[in-house]
Amino acid sequence: MILVFLGPPGSGKGTQAKKVTAERGWPQLSTGDMLRSAIANGTKLGLEAKSFMDRGALVPDAVVIGLIAERVLSPDCKAGFILDGFPRTIPQAEALDLMLAELSQKVFMTVLFDIPDSELVSRLSGRRTCLKCGAMYHVVAASPKVEGICDACGAGLVQRDDDKEDVILKRLAVYHAQTAPVAGYYDSQRKLRKLDARLPQTEVLGHLKSLISN
Ligand SMILES: [Zn+2]
């Protein structure tokens, strides 16, 4: 079963993908991980991707699609896989469909993790991270015992740049301009299912499981 998880940064799709992977064994494919491993292994596509990244340019869709195609053919993807964070644009979605069709495969379902911007801003901008041990906190939802101090290791907590409000708003603007239309693309193929990503993680997972088993 080939699933696409779609949603803005902070919607929890990556976390949920990990849970589905743990339960069903379908690998979670992230283009960032695939790029890193192709570059580390010095594959042809990896070297090609690196030549763009070294110039500070975006890796072309054709290279990313090539990486996914290689990955999809590995044995662990045979029963299915989850694309997390790809496609991000309609041209990528079209290229993905073409590539899968050549392999006699297709996307089975796209799950949209739906959540209002205001909720994302409060979720993400409240995050605090321990740089020493990686523990994460939230100023409202999961505050440490002592403000600004990690419960686990006693180091100071920081707000990462990615969690600052102006950075979040910029990422959301890109999401609404480029990625939100991808939901419409899959909806026109009748493959789109929406999840209320405001709900607690266990409830989101419950809904996700019922979507997958239907
Ligand atoms: Zn810590």
How would you describe the overall organization of this protein?
By secondary structure, the chain is an alpha/beta fold. It has a domain at 2-26 and 79-116 and 174-213: Rossmann fold. The chain is built from eight helices and eight strands; from the N terminus they run βαβαααβαβαβββαβα. It has helices spanning 13-24, 31-40, 44-54, 61-72, 90-102, 117-125, 165-188, 201-213; strands spanning 2-6, 28-29, 81-84, 109-114, 127-130, 136-138, 157-158, 192-196. Strands 2-3-1-4-8 form a five-stranded parallel sheet, with helices on both faces. The protein has a three-stranded antiparallel sheet with strand order 6-5-7. A hairpin with a 5-residue loop joins β5 (127-130) and β6. α4 runs parallel beside α5 (90-102). The longest helix is centred in the C-terminal third of the chain and has 24 residues, at 165-188. It is globular, with a radius of gyration of 18 Å. The protein starts with a strand and ends with a helix. The model has no long low-confidence stretch (mean pLDDT 94). The structure holds zinc ion. Zinc ion binds next to loops.
